[in-house]
Amino acid sequence: MNYGIVSQEQLEQIDGVLSEKLIKLGVDCVIIIDMAGNIITAKDNGESKYDVYSFAALAAGNFATVDAMAKLVGEQEFSLLFHKGQESNIHFSKIDDELLLISMFGRDISLGFLRLNVVDVIEKIRVIWGNQ
Amino acid sequence: MSFINLKDKIVQVKIVYYGPGRCGKTTNLEYINRTYRKQIVSEMVSLKTHGDRTLFFDFLPFDMGQIKGYDIKIQLYTVPGQVKYNATRKLVLRGVDGIVFVADAMEKQREKNIRSLNQLHENLQSYKESIFNIPLVMQYNKVDLKEHGIPILPTSILEKDLNSRLKVPYFEASAITGYNVAATLKKIISSSVISIQKKLL
Ligand SMILES: Nc1nc2c(ncn2[C@@H]2O[C@H](COP(=O)(O)OP(=O)(O)OP(=O)(O)O)[C@@H](O)[C@H]2O)c(=O)[nH]1
Ligand SMILES: [Mg+2]
User: What pTM was computed for the model?
Assistant: First the structure.
């Protein structure tokens, strides 16, 4: 995988998958970041006003911390990382060793339903990334 | 490694301020945050303890404008300097493009600077990066203390201790008054951007 540079075409395809598979279902905001805290792409429903750059830095730190804790207790990784709030929830999913997919969603979507779609999205992204 | 978005023409560059505890890393970012409001799109994020020591990192996104049609977004981070936080220090270094090593010029901190620099070297190795290849700038901070009669290491000693093999650009500075904070920042940004351009060509 050519991490570091993504072509315009690849990004457009990925954005398309995120819109089709997550935003259309009612997910408020989806961000793909790398483990260094860079934003690869961000899509939202047009209403959410998150500061995505700070968010990416914190999310990468959060994920890295949990990952390091997993190693300390002898786990490969904690595969599910999920934060639940009153109005909004955040779900983290690892695409590969370098990339994370983060979804923010409200009360009207269940975690199970979201996870199914995230798995599907990640598979599609891997294919797009592989095709270069 | 920086991330380059060819669709929106954005380059994200990660710069980390590294150095021993209380050397003035956070104070550098605070000064930048106050002085360059126009170029800063969002709030500075500081994960710190009650005593104002950095616990995980400070984060400050900084807009550089355009170079060759690309929007350059600089992401400034600090690491926590306290000895016990090396695990988190390492996490912050992941994917770093350029480093400012902030040394504390106070005489009594001489050993700590050297130990911190050695650990930076080891931490970079764990990411298969080399301190000899990565863009790096030295900052000898707190030179203002000389006026207050506090013993300060001469720059020649700091150069010998920290920079005799690396031979990177260095600045005497005072993060608290702002002296050479911008010069340090400009230097590390230009070194990092040049190094990214080289990788691209
Ligand atoms: N006199 C003087 N004091 C400074 C200077 N820079 C920082 N300080 C002071 O040194 C103390 C520590 O500064 P910080 O910026 O919090 O240090 P740090 O490197 O972020 O420390 P950690 O987060 O623990 O790693 C504060 O009391 C600052 O006001 C300087 O240039 N001159
Ligand atoms: Mg600090």
Answer: 0.90
